[in-house]
Amino acid sequence: MSNWKTILNADPTDWLLEPSHPSVRYFTLRWIFDRPEDDPEVLLAAQAIAQSAPIQKLLSSQRPEGYWGTDARPHHGTKRYLGILKWLGYKDGPGIRKAMDYLINGCLQEDGSYAVELKGRMVKLPCHAGDLLSLMLWSGYENDPRTKKLLTWLVDIQGEDGVWPCISKLRPFSCLWATVDILRAYRDLPENWVTQSIVTSRNLAIEQILDSNLYQYGTGKVSSRWFEFGFPLRFDTDILEVLELLAPYVSPGEARIQEGLSLVLDKQTVEGCWLCEKHPKGGRWMQQFFEFESLGEPSRWVTLHALRTLKTLYND
Q1: What is the tens place of the pLDDT at every residue in 283-306?
Q2: Number of structural domains, the chain?
Q3: Does residue 130 fall inside a structural domain?
Q4: DSSP H or E segment with residue 196
Q5: Global pTM?
């Protein structure tokens, strides 16, 4: 399908481009209209992001040491705030390098693993390692040897079936949510980093997700949050994001995505929008910096990601 917008009930892009939401405008220009980083409108949107109230509040509340809040432990007081800055499309500003150094020096181990001390023991966390890899690529650590060391560790610990294990649990288990975290990081890899080992690792994960009907890996109870759409996503994911990550590697006719694809299309409103159905898990603290979108109301963020998914799937 050369014109992917024919699958929409209506075109919501003018709504997404409204200057009142500079982060959504920025990503709409980049992802939906394929504008380059040096495009004048993209540059203006990036400037508006930097000047926006949430970004200014975040930057002004950073501690001189590099962390935020009252908990100085890097895993607790740094990564989640950097995640907001990345989600909103801000980078290259003051404080980012200091915060990243604080996080990396506090959590990245000599063997390339991400580990923190919890209840008196060191716990290695692949899901958080995936987050850190994305943050390092976003914040200019591409040429830092620790970045590739972290990537190598993630590849090495992947399960034989393609799913990453929560290796430090007293009862270790394989986690599809953690696997999605790491596929997010793989999406951010520079093209020249995508070696055969990365392709093999990525394809193994994708095949397992497809064989799991996008969300049914394992025998445990399936969380309802798989079927609710919202952004940002922190410690979980949903079917929309899974489809967004798989879209470059599957065709819309792939039988194993049909249930998920139908769910996404069925949730579209007559205006060509998607609703906010959930708020970030464990994310109430975010509200000190910005307001969440209203539950049950049209969501610019969910709509943006739905359009990106459909554009990738259906644009021949």
Answers
A1: 888 999 999 999 999 999 999 999
A2: 1
A3: no
A4: helix 196-211
A5: 0.94
Supply the pLDDT for residue 316: 59
pLDDT of 183-207, one tens digit each?
999 999 999 999 999 999 999 999 9
| Count of positions (residues) in the chain | 316
Q: Which of 168, 247, 176, 228 is nearest to 205 (CA)?
A: 176
Q: Which range (82-86, 119-123, 139-143, 274-278) has the least confidence? A: 119-123
Contacts 24+ apart (CB under 8 A), 162-168: 162/201, 162/204, 162/205, 162/206, 162/207, 162/208, 162/209, 163/205, 163/208, 163/217, 164/126, 164/127, 164/205, 165/126, 166/125, 166/126, 166/127, 167/124, 167/126, 168/115, 168/122, 168/123, 168/124, 168/125
CA–CA distance, 300 with 29 (Å, rounded to integer): 13
Domain assignment of residue 261, given as a range: 1-20+212-316
Asked whether residue 254 is assigned to any structural domain, the reply reads yes
Is residue 176 included in any domain, yes or no? no
Element (H, E) at 166: strand 165-166
In a domain, 169, yes or no: no
